[in-house]
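User: Okay, second chain of the day. Same drill as before: sequence in, structure tokens out.
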Amino acid sequence: MLERRALLGASAMLAAMLPPPRGANAALPFTAASLPIPDGLRDRLELAARPKVRALPRRRMDLDFAVLLMRTGYQAVADELDFVAMNQFQQEFFLFRQAEWERYREGLPRLQQGDLSDAAYFDFISFCQHATIAAEMRRGSQVVARPAELANNAVLPAAHAERVGDVLLQKIYEKYERLAPKVPPSTQQLSAELMCDGVRRLADIFEINDYMLSSRVERVPNGVEFALVVPATLWSQQVLALRGDLRNDYEVKVVFAWFRRCNVPVTCTTRFEQGTQVVHTFTWPVGYLA
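Assistant: Same drill. Structure tokens below.
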């Protein structure tokens, strides 16, 4: 009874702290990591705020592409960042996956473990991988040999995202040489339309591999908007954002890598719309590109 009262009290406190919702397109109002309440209650509130797991129309992902996404996230931990012993990471990953599986499967009772081509399963396992990576980043063992520039745990999420993006973009160039956007020579003047076309080409490659049902890329003032309809990480991107964890937005990481190759500085904001769409807006400095 006391625990229930405490939970209700914390919920009321949270409601008082948050602004009123602005409709279905509103951004997530908080992250679980930011709540000023005990961890146990924060965990309960985070679970209550998660989007519902539900069956959605999804294509089967290309298996090689799905494996590439998962493997790249793992290898950035195992081979480059060196912030956790791999036997510890694998154990924590297993335990987290085991703890989350039945809860996730309640919404998808026919879901089978291990089928990476099933976007619903990929959504789950990618969430588990990134949540585990995020937890280990916060702990960041100093026993493991780490490069000096990565000694601060706070820099690990950005370093992981950059490495994943660079590796995935390179793999895309190797497999889709004719489809991938060309990096313009240093003598060529860059334009907003050229950058938009590059993002569109990358979106096409993700779509070819059935990562999402469809996509839309268009110019916006001082940037590019990239919308994905029912991506394979629709649920997990929302939950990881809610938890304040490392994101599994592979498409964002690849687009950032493309902009880095073009020496165009950008930032990115993400919103979730209509329960089925993830929309990323990449913005460069005002007046940087015509």
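The longest strand covers residues 214-220.

User: Thanks, on to the next one.
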